[in-house]
TrEMBL record:
Its main location: membrane. The lineage of its organism: Eukaryota, Metazoa, Chordata, Craniata, Vertebrata. PANTHER family: IMMUNOGLOBULIN V-SET DOMAIN-CONTAINING PROTEIN (PTHR11860:SF114), POLYMERIC-IMMUNOGLOBULIN RECEPTOR (PTHR11860). Residues 1-26 form the signal peptide. This is Ig-like domain-containing protein. Keywords: Disulfide bond, Membrane, Signal, Transmembrane. It is found in: Membrane. GO terms for molecular function: transmembrane signaling receptor activity. The keyword Hydrolase does not apply. Residues 5-123 form the Ig-like domain.
């Protein structure tokens, strides 16, 4: 298996390091609508890959979308990421929000060793109508290919 540091360590990295900060550590959006998260970083990290992941259990995270180190926007399933290297801010947009999107997510910067990460709590507003039927599926993990599964401590493969 892959050894990964505990989440508490990663939270410490995010809170005690000014290298990477989330503009807001909690964001909310309307069901069926969209929300935007902005994460800022210090000079020197412009060409590093930036990522957005969903925490699935203690210290494990699914990368939902990741840049290639450029400013080119990258789109995933209902989520996109774009890095503005002049402003040193990358922006994540989540669209067509669902109730089961509410969770803990992380902004991150890829680096050798343990990546930099900062937690962002996402909540979904009920909006004008609220209809809850049955149990929400948590099968989003199964819909991701194994090649897109990463832990915070990246194992780089060719």
């Amino acid at each position: 298996g892959i050894t990964i540091p505990p989440v508490t360590f990663l939270v410490w990295v995010g809170l005690c390091s000014s290298v990477l900060v989330a503009v807001s550590d909690a964001v909310s959006g309307p069901a069926r609508g969209s929300l935007t998260v902005q994460c800022r970083y210090e000079p020197g990290w412009e060409t590093h890959s930036k990522w957005w992941c969903r925490e699935v259990e203690s210290s494990k995270c699914y990368i939902l979308v990741r840049t290639n180190g450029s400013e080119q926007e990258v789109k995933g399933d209902r989520v996109s990421i774009k890095d503005d290297q002049k402003l040193r801010t990358f922006t994540v947009t989540m669209e067509k929000l669902r109730w089961d999107d509410a969770d803990s997510y992380w902004c991150g910067i890829e680096r050798s060793g343990t990546d930099l990460g900062v937690e962002v709590k996402v909540t979904i507003d009920p909006g004008k109508s609220m209809c809850v039927c049955g149990v929400f599926s948590i099968s989003f993990c199964a819909s991701l290919s194994t090649s897109r599964y990463f832990c915070f401590k990246f194992v780089h493969s060719t």
